[in-house]
Amino acid sequence: MVSQAVIDHVTQRGVANIISRDEFVEMLRSGKRLRLKMGFDPSRPDIHLGHVVGLRKLRELQELGHQVILIVGDWTAQIGDPSGRSATRPMLTHEEVVSNAESYMRQFFRVVDRDRTQVEWQSQWFGKFNLADVIRLTSHFTVAQFLERDDFSKRFSEHQPIAITELLYPLLQAYDSVAIESDVEFGGTDQMFNLLVGRDLQEIMGQKPQQCFLMPILPGTDGVQKMSKSLDNYVAVEEEPNDMYGKLMSLPDNLIVPYFDYLTDLPAGELSDMAQAIDDESVNPMEFKKRLALEITAAFHDPDAASGAERNFERVVQQRSLPEEIPEFQLDASAGRGTGSLSRMLVSAGLASSNGEAKRLINQRAVQVIGPDGQSRVVSGDSLDEGIHPGAVLRVGRRRFLRLTS
């Protein structure tokens, strides 16, 4: 038997909505081993803390003996779902999907127990679909029903194009639930429409409708928009310890309690006390933020790495000193003064992913050169002839450093 305290924790902590909560609680109490579905489109290879909110809930239910079924959307990723976006996502090749899926699953199993997870690829059932099967699937719903989805409705009212393939996306995701006989499907609140279509389709096809477990959307480090790699406000689960700790320390104070709530096991009583202390300014929020950054970094690395990241933050950010360890980069001696390109050097040194990003960093005054005397100045141009020579240290952003050698 599952205790009421456990049921309350599972259904309330880090949860936006459950459709239907009463039915889900009844299923938990029944003792049945539930089939928990979470699908993902490997359109990107990275998992960030926004995804972790739902993955932690899956792990909780695994600990209670339930079965997680991970659906790899190798078909739907090649269609693209615009949920919450204003345009169609680009289609991917099968090779891109497979590569992204391998990276995704490696990160997925940093949170969810691999041994208690069943992985299924959509191609196992959609590979057998023919045109008649697709037409039968579409016959169960109307265009008017699908235009009720917020992003479709918005684009339709603004006379923006909606591809026929996009209307197929919720149907294919819904059929996944039929194929694996899902008891509960997990997704963010922006996926509610798709999860409800799955619930309807199961009932139409003679199955018991799945419960829809909706997770809250985690705000990004900017404190405004949802965490997203495209918005550069994300913390990846494979982030280096110094970067993970530093990004978490950049959170606005109003996100400290939600991050503790969604991403840690801090007891509810302590959460309440923390929120009160922040509101009445009896404790410096920096202390809570450092605890949050330390705990999350340790969860994805280890306590020693997290402690090292904390020391690095205190030295570099709080004390404005250089890190104890700085990677080195050998300047090309053949490039004469004034003839080298700083942007190309930043790419070669791994401090920027492309010349475009490097030039953007320079234009945003995010690149500084620190001389042997410890004095720093902002780099204003793309030339290496700005005091950028062996012995100098480059600082890119708040946390990346590079010592130049000859």
What do you see in this structure?
The protein has 406 residues and is α/β, with parallel strands linked by helices. The chain has three domains: 4-215, HUPs (Rossmann fold, 3-Layer(aba) Sandwich); 241-318, Tyrosyl-Transfer RNA Synthetase (Orthogonal Bundle), CATH 1.10.240.10; 328-405, RNA-binding S4 domain (Structural Genomics Hypothetical 15.5 Kd Protein In mrcA-pckA Intergenic Region, Chain A, Roll), CATH 3.10.290. Helix content is 44%, strand content 12%. It has 17 helices and eleven strands. It has helices spanning 4-12, 21-30, 49-63, 94-108, 123-126, 131-138, 143-146, 150-157, 164-180, 192-204, 241-249, 256-263, 268-279, 285-300, 303-318, 342-348, 355-363, and strands spanning 17-19, 35-40, 67-72, 117-121, 184-188, 211-215, 328-330, 367-370, 376-378, 393-396, 400-405. The strands form two sheets. It has a six-stranded mixed β-sheet, with helices on both faces. Strands 7-11-10-8-9 form a five-stranded mixed β-sheet, with no helix packed on it. Strand 5 (184-188), helix 10 (192-204) and strand 6 (211-215) form a beta-alpha-beta unit. Helix 11 packs antiparallel against helix 14 and helix 11 (241-249) crosses helix 15. The longest helix has 17 residues, at 164-180. The protein is globular. The model is unreliable at 84-88 and 334-339 (pLDDT under 50).
